[in-house]
Structures are given as structure tokens and as C-alpha cells.
Amino acid sequence: MEQIERIKEFGGWLNRYRHASDACNCLMTFSVYLPPAADQCPVPAVYYLSGLTCTDDNVRVKAGAQRYAAELGLALVMPDTSPRGEAVPDAPERYDLGQGAGFYVNATRGPWAAHYRMFDYVTEELPELVEANLPIVPGLRSVTGHSMGGHGTLVAALRRPELYRSVSAFAPICNPVAVAWGEGCFGAYLGHDRAAWAEYDATELVRAGRRFSGPPLIDQGTADEFLAEQLHPEALEAACLDQGQPLILRRQPGYDHSYHFIASFIGEHLAHHAEALTRRP
Amino acid sequence: MEQIERIKEFGGWLNRYRHASDACNCLMTFSVYLPPAADQCPVPAVYYLSGLTCTDDNVRVKAGAQRYAAELGLALVMPDTSPRGEAVPDAPERYDLGQGAGFYVNATRGPWAAHYRMFDYVTEELPELVEANLPIVPGLRSVTGHSMGGHGTLVAALRRPELYRSVSAFAPICNPVAVAWGEGCFGAYLGHDRAAWAEYDATELVRAGRRFSGPPLIDQGTADEFLAEQLHPEALEAACLDQGQPLILRRQPGYDHSYHFIASFIGEHLAHHAEALTRRP
Questions:
Q1: CA-based radius of gyration for chain B
Q2: What number of other Cβ atoms are within 10 A of residue B25's Cβ?
Q3: Given B10, B223, B260, which is nearest A14 (Cβ)?
Q4: Is the distance from CB of A134 to CB of A41 less than 8 angstroms?
Q5: Left (φ > 0), alpha (ψ -120 to 50) or beta: where does B191 sit?
Q6: Nearest-neighbour CA in chain A from B183: distance (Å)
Q7: Residue A251 contacts B, CB cutoff 8 Å
Q8: B64 touches chain A (CB under 8 A)
Q9: Record: contact A260-B8, CB cut-off 8 A
Q10: Residue ranges of chain A with pLDDT lower than 50?
Q11: What angle (nearest 5°) sits at the alpha carbon of residue B92, between those of residues B91 and B97?
Q12: Which candidate in A80, A90, A201, A224 is catalytic?
């Protein structure tokens, strides 16, 4: 991997890298914040999966997360939201399909399948890469994300619970198979067989018996402009209750879907992850 | 003034307003963050003057200031950087003149003089407006800013020291009459008489005997890409030393000119202002 940017922040370093991704079959860009503690010894990492239209830049500029990561001694790993480049299929007229909208799935249908393998990318290829090349403790990971990235976060944790010590999400798409954002993408990426869609739906995964060892921490603003149509936290909540999956779902009065909402609570999320990552197993 | 946006953040409210400005002779947009404490009683305000190309949005999205303002019980008042609109003169081929580049001066030359009165706007019209309409204590103000806004901040404090309890700046243009950014704008806005320019130059104001009652707090990154050509903190430092003006100038190793630098130190700046604003006179 090639380092393409290095910015000092809160005594640590906000770095950006580019590498040839096997999973995505293209050049991928990501950012990592290394806290001051990483100068002394390897640190645990929190992965942040971003929402629709984002790159790795949105969270690092808007969330205010680096301050807390510096204080808590956590690395932040911030991937892009899809494969990129002229050779990568896109749907330029849509913000919710194609580049910027990978939905953290492994696509199985053309033209997407040759590049859109974001599930493998964020759960396997990227952790292996950063743990081999940066002062990050191998295997000591937590995951969080926003909206489409909150969906990816919950799916990653439910399908690969052994990879993460803790999981949290901001305004996640909790039941994508039942809403327009998910239907539009899953049909394109995965085809018409809805059984394949259920493998990328947190609510369906819980219903089918998948578990995460601790309670996912979810914050959801009550003034979120996408809450009623796209997010459906009540479906996940009901599935968790039915199935005995612990869940911390906090409805935050008056907050919207923006990074101002994320900024307000990212400190509590990172503290939650730091506690899990430093707890003795 | 008309409220055009309202976003909950850190338990308070990030609001945006539009109003017909007398000073700028156009519609102006600005943002105010009101901390949770403002629900109970009026709070002091810190004004943040932004840099070249910015609107009120950059700082509210990128600086991470609202967290500290919420904790400290401070309002943040975030004006735009110039008059705006189709009727307002511009230099679209330049990022450092015209809209987005008001330089916080009262222009005296055509075509700029009819609108570009940002000094009066930020020091008089805007404070009167927000103090009359929002839960902000009249007259209890501090001021900070970045780059061109750091210049505006120092000039406001040195020319109108009675208006502010404390002043700070991030990577300010300390001696604009001596650098390309200042020369290009001051010639256009103020004409060829360099005596008029000196009224908008912090170093020249100190040399001419202007004083601020406390030490301005300035942070300057040593890896700032504009440091050598445009900022000249050493000129201000020398003038302050010559004239007995206290100054806290901190050279921060490795930091650049970006909002990642501002984010790293805005908490210390707001704590500095909170101390001054809550001190008994």
C-alpha cells in the first residue's frame, strides 16, 4: 500500500493510503487515524463504515472522532464506500447504486460482481492489510458506521462475530430488504432471489438465529428525515426481542441524520468500543 | 432575521439565519450554535471568523467546536466571509478577492465599496443583531478565526479592544500588507494608499501603538503550507516585543493549515475564551 497523505491531528497522524484491492479488483483509497499511543506500541482499531455518497473523507472531516480516538488510544480505519474508477460499473444517475453505494455486499450479478465485493473488502482484506503494515494489534477490532454503513456494520458483526469485540451504529438501515434503498441495490447486486438478500439484512439475520456476543449499541435520532421510510429500527428491535439478542437502541430526541448527530454521540460509541477492546477476554 | 435551519447537536442547537444586512447591502447568511445552557439563560458568545473561500458552513462542520461550546456554555457565532449574491461584485477567476474573500475590511474603492464592509458587519451589525434576537449576553464577546479570519480577528481586537474580552487565532495572516494575499486584496478594496492598508494589518497596528488588554493566543503549525509566504507570525511577534504588547504565540510542530489543525486546538482556544468571559471584571 502507498501512503498518499499525512496530516497531524490531536498529536497523532491522519494518514491516507491507496492500494490495489484483490476483493474489489481496483485501486482503493482509505484513511487511518493513528493516535499518539501508536508511536509507542500497536493499538486496537475501530472500523468506521460510511453512508451513501461518502468517501473515506467525510467521517474524518465531519465526525470529530479523532479527538476521542487520541484520548482513548484507538486507531480509526475508514474505508471508502465502494470500488472506484473508470473501469468500475456505475449508475451515475443514482446516488444509491454503484460508486459510493456498495452497500457492503459481495455482488453476484453482472456488471457488478467483478468489483463490488465490499463485504470481503471491509471484513477481510482491509484488516489484513492494515494489521500487516501499521501499528495496529492483529485481530483486536470493533466496528461502527452510519446509515448504509450502519447496515454494513451490523451485518458484518452478525455474520462474522468472531472478528469484532463490539459493534455500534448511527441511524443504520436495519431491515434493507423491506425498504427502497435496500431493494434497489440488492436487486441489482444480488439478483431476484430474496433468500440471498437476507444474508445482508441485520433484522433477517437475527430472525434466522445469527448472534453477536454483546449488545450492539445503536443511536437513532427521532427527527431523522429517513427514519420512517428507510431505517426501520423497530423491526430489528422486535427481532432481537423475539430471539433473545441483547440490543441497546437509544432513540435520541430531536436529532437528524447528519454528521452533527454523529458528532454528538461518537465519543460515547468510541468509549463503548474502548471498553470492549481493553477488557481482558 | 429569518431562521432557515435548525439542527440539534450536543444537546444544543446549530441554527442558521438569513437577514438583510445594512453594512453589506445584501442578504447575509450566518450560523449560531446555542449550547444547552442557553435554554436556561443568556450565554456569552465567541465569534469565529473564517478563512478564504469559506462560508459559515466550514467551521460548523469541520472544527469540532460545538462539543466544547456545549461543555463550556458558550454560543458560537459564525458569519460568512463576504457579501454574497448576483448583485455583489466578484472576481470569479480569483479565490482571494471578491466573494469568499472579504478580508474583514470596509472597502473604499469601486466596485467593492457598495457591499464589502465586513469590518463593520462582524464588529457591529452582527453582534447587535444576535444580541437582540438570541439568548446571548449583550457585550460579552470574544473572537477567534483562521487564516484570513485570524487576520480579521486580530484587527478587530486591536482596533476595537473594548468589544472583546479575549482574542485568539489559528494561523492568522499577521502582516497582510507585506504578503501577496493582502496586497492583492487591499489594493482592490482600499486603493493604492498604503496608509489605509495599515489600519487592517495587525503587525502595523501594534507598531502604531494599538493595544489589546490581554495576550492574543495564536497557534501556528510549523508544517503549514502557507507559513513562509503568507502568514509572517514572526513580524507580529517582533512588533509585540518592541511595543510591550503581550502575546502567546505557540508554534505547533508538524501541524498544517487545515481544519485538522484547528480541530486539534479549538478546545484550548474556547477554554481560554470561557475563562475570560466568566472572569469577574
A1: 17
A2: 17
A3: B260
A4: no
A5: left
A6: 30
A7: no
A8: yes
A9: yes
A10: none
A11: 40
A12: A224
Whole-number pLDDT of residue A279: 82
Identity of the residue numbered A255: Y
pLDDT tens readout for residues B77-98:
999 999 999 999 999 999 999 9
Shortest distance, CA A22 to any CA of chain B (angstroms): 32
What pLDDT, on a 0 to 100 scale, did the predictor assign at position A191?
A: 96
Q: A236: which residues sit within 8 A by CB, 6+ positions away?
A: A154, A174, A175, A202, A203, A206, A218, A247, A249
Q: What is the largest CA-CA distance in chain B?
A: 51
CA dihedral for A266, B76, B5, A222, sign (positive or negative): positive
Give the minimum alpha-carbon distance from A235 to chain B in angstroms, rounded to a whole number: 25
3-state helix vs strand vs coil in chain A, percent to 5: 40, 25, 35
Contact call for residues B48 and B167 (beta carbons, < 8 A): no
pLDDT at B281 over 70: no
Q: How far apart are CA B159 and CA A242, in angstroms?
A: 67
User: Is B263 close to A14, i.e. CB distance below 8 A?
Assistant: no
Q: What pLDDT is attached to residue B126?
A: 98
Q: Could you tell me if B7 lies within 8 Å of chain A, comparing CB atoms?
A: yes
**CB B107, CB B117: distance < 8 Å:** yes
ipTM: 0.90
Name the DSSP letter for residue A63: S
In A3-33, which positions are buried (b, 16+ CB within 10 angstroms) versus exposed (e)? eeeebbbbbbbbbbbebebebbbbebbbbbb
- Which tens digit of pLDDT belongs to each residue from B187-244? 999 999 999 999 999 999 999 999 999 999 999 999 999 999 999 999 999 999 999 9
Burial B193-216, CB ≥16 within 10 A → b, else e: eeeebbbbbbbbbbbeebebebbb
- What mean pLDDT is predicted for residues B157-175? 98
Using a CB–CB cutoff of 8 Å, tell me whether A5 touches chain B: no
Q: CB–CB of A8 and B267 under 8 A?
A: no
